[in-house]
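From the shared-data thread, chain only:
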Amino acid sequence: MLVLVSYDVSSDNNGAKRLRRVAKTCENFGQRVQYSVFECLVDPTQWIELKSKLESIVDKELDSLRYYYLGKNWERRVEHYGAKESINFEKDVLIL
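Structure, as C-alpha cells:
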C-alpha cells in the first residue's frame, strides 16, 4: 500500500535532532517528494514499524505527523506535474 507521510517538527532545542531522525526514518521506507513529505510503499508489517518509529521520535505536544492512506490502487489517485517526478517502486526499480 502507498502511504503519504507528512510532518512538521518544532524548532525548539531538540527540534533539529528530531527533524533529522524523522527524515532519516522516512528515507528508509520511501522517497521524499517534498521537503517534509514522503511516499512510502509498504506492506502492513512495514507500515506498523514505520508508524511506531515515527511516533516514538516526535514530541506529541510540539510536532505533528499526518498519514494519507492511498492503498494498493494508488496509481490512479496520484498525478504529477512538473520537475522531479517520483519513482514507481513497483515498476521502475532496477535490480543489479
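The radius of gyration is 14 Å.
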